[in-house]
Predict the 3D structure of the following.
Amino acid sequence: MVTAVAKKGFFEPIEPNVSLLLSRWRDTHELDDCDVLQQIRLISQHRQVRLSLGTMPITEKIGGHMAEGQKWTIDRIGGTLGLVVAIVGAFIAIPFAALILLVLGLVAGWGYAADTRVRVIVSAVALPVMAGAFNAIPVAGSFLAAIVTNIGAVAVGAALCIILMNIYRRFVTT
């Protein structure tokens, strides 16, 4: 059941739990409906801002499309550089490429949100295993296998960072 509040030309649908909150606030704080709705809107905006900071999924990082207001951070730069080195490294010999990919993965792993961490760890295991399947493709197969293997190295670095952060949180912080 969705109700609506109209006041001063303002019309907004309200979910039932917000209706209950509206009535409780109106009774306890002696506010009119417009003031209560403004408070609820501010709380909702604050929650959305808190949730949006640093929680961009890896698919959006790879695509390079950032939501409005989000900035390039060290972990995003590390992940993007890791992908660039992974692709370029498939075609050109880069000295210490494995170390570079691992370090860039460690940097990228720092910024992953809690809901994406399991996917990163699974990707770190799956990508190197599946990379060999690309070798069956004529001409381009070896390059595709190298790209997937290199991206897997970045994912291994990110997974290592996530695991180390989990260990730190488990044993060092209370």
Residues 1-14, 55-64 have pLDDT under 50 and may be disordered. Strands lie at 3-7, 10-14. The helical segments are 16-29, 33-52, 58-63, 74-89, 97-109, 117-131, 141-171. Residues 58-171 form one domain.
